[in-house]
């Protein structure tokens, strides 16, 4: 929930998407949510965790109020707080003390929500002690906190002899048949479209934007616009933080930065961790989706002739400065899936 007094929901929505993608059920209470409403929802749904979001400074005081209300109601479910206004220091000084024996953890990035949640589910007592010790160090200057800047990055330990290496059905590149925008239309995720405009689905503003976007799609489909995808699989192996990819033009080295160590991060990952070392016959796959020109041309025409539809054209059609989406993902890995997606400009 975004707390009372705050109408911003982009961060909350992103956190919800990340959690759902990691098999967590999310109950979204919306924005401007009263403390008592949150307490009633906790009693009703009995969640494993409570998420509070806030972008503006007054939200910090309301988070303290929510924590107090929950404590007085006898609720001790772990609270995750996040948003631009939050900080580790304010959480330790104000929010955590208001929650008594309950856990309050500040989540700096939406991607960390499922990570922290999984740790609490696995070892709630141990994680609570670690969180409390870190917050106590912030509350008491005489207690020297650990210097995380000098901490060595802990790499995940993977026994590749026990991992199943998946072989692709082909190596090299393959261009798929063109697909009409009409066929792609049912798969549009409107949540991201609404987030782009900072509106909530189901509201009057969202419905108006949706109508504009549907009209734009009709124009694009009427122009017989198509999309094309090219895929490829190549032999690859990892060495330290690099992925070595073998192509027809020679070997390509792809450096993958490793996460920085923090107080709450037990392992620091890099994309290279998801590719087996040399000798395991591992592969890497990539894909590139691009339009056949008519979609972008339609976008240009709308941007220049229709002021009402220009924003939707930019959000839902292919941007003129970005003609393709390039993605890359490892075929194998330590019993998990991970990918990276980048943009290429024309």
Could you explain the architecture of this structure?
By secondary structure, the chain is of the alpha+beta class. It is 36% helix and 19% strand. α10 runs antiparallel to α11. The C terminus is likely disordered.
What can be said about this structure in brief?
With 346 residues, this protein is α+β, with helices and mostly antiparallel strands.
Features:
19% strand, disordered C terminus, 11 strands, 11 helices, three-stranded parallel β-sheet, 346 residues
% residues in beta strands: 15-25%
* Distance between the amino and carboxyl termini: 40 Å
Helix vs. strand class: alpha+beta
Largest sheet: 8 strands, antiparallel
Number of helices: 11
The residue ranges in which pLDDT falls below 50 over 5 or more consecutive positions are: 295-346
Helical residue percent band:
25-40%
> What's the helix-strand series?
HHEHEHEHHEEHHHEEEEHHEE
Compute the CA-based radius of gyration: 24 Å
Which shape, going by the Cα principal axes? Answer: flat
> Kindly state the mean pLDDT as a whole number?
80
Please report the total strand number as a whole number.
11
């Amino acid at each position: 929930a975004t707390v009372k007094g705050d109408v911003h929901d982009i961060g909350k929505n992103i956190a919800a998407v990340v959690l759902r993608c990691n098999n967590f059920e999310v109950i979204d209470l919306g924005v401007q949510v009263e403390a008592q409403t949150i307490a009633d929802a906790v009693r009703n749904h009995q969640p494993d965790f409570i998420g509070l979001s806030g972008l503006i400074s007054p939200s910090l005081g309301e988070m303290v109020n929510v924590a107090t209300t929950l404590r007085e109601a006898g609720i001790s479910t772990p609270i995750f707080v996040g948003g631009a206004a939050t900080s580790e220091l304010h959480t330790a000084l104000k929010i955590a003390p208001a929650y008594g024996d309950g856990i309050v953890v500040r989540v700096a990035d939406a991607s960390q929500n499922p990570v922290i949640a999984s740790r609490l589910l696995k070892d709630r007592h141990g994680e609570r002690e670690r969180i409390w010790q870190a917050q106590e160090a912030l509350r008491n200057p005489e207690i020297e906190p650990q210097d995380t800047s000098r901490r060595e990055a802990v790499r995940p330990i993977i026994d590749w002899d026990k991992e199943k290496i998946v072989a692709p059905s082909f190596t090299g590149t393959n261009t798929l048949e063109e697909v009409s925008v009409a066929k792609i239309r049912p798969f549009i995720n409107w949540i991201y479209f609404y987030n782009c405009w900072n509106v909530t689905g189901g509201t009057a503003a969202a419905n108006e934007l949706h109508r504009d976007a549907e009209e734009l799609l009709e124009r694009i489909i009427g122009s017989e616009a198509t999309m094309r995808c090219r895929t490829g699989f190549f032999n690859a192996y990892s060495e330290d933080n690099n992925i070595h990819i073998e192509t027809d033009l020679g070997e390509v080295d792809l450096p993958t930065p490793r996460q920085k160590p923090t107080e709450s991060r037990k392992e620091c990952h890099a994309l290279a961790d998801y590719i087996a070392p040399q000798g395991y016959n591992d592969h890497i796959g990539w894909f590139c989706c691009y339009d056949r020109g008519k979609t972008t041309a339609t976008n240009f025409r709308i941007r220049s002739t229709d002021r009402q539809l220009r924003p939707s054209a930019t959000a839902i059609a292919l941007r003129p400065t970005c003609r393709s989406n390039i993605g890359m993902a490892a075929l194998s890995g330590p019993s998990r899936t991970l990918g990276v997606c980048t943009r290429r400009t024309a």
